[in-house]
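Let us work through a complete example step by step.
Step 1: write down the sequence.
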Amino acid sequence: MSMSFERYMLDMVQPMRDDLTRLGIEELRTPEDVEAKLPGAKGTALVVVNSVCGCAAGQCRPGVAQALQNDLTPDHLFTVFAGQDKEATAKAREYFAPYPPSSPSIALMKDGELVHFIERHQIENRSAADIAADLTSAFERFCR
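Step 2: predict the structure and record it as tokens.
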């Protein structure tokens, strides 16, 4: 029985994608998707840079899920997948300056401008509850 590496990766990564899309977060899979959504997003937009690493699974995605239970949430919810949708991720990262590439990471934008950013080093040694608290605080500040 033979399975291509590409098919294997798609099968392995799909549950990681589903962790976010089942929350109503829209995947941006191409640079064109990113360009069509991010610069023109009126109001607030959350952009989660997803990853296959343990801190994405244990802290980032669960923290985002908890934060989205807040009464006040961003107007738009997006995700790109680092290492999987490489070109889309690179395009999204252009909007996260001056921060260097980091995955996982979480950006909050308001009217196309970055207003809050959580880098990998702020995810990997914190709990999902800590990340959720950080995000809900940012939501309360910027999503009004």
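Step 3: interpret the result. Helices lie at 5-21, 31-37, 54-67, 86-93, 128-142.
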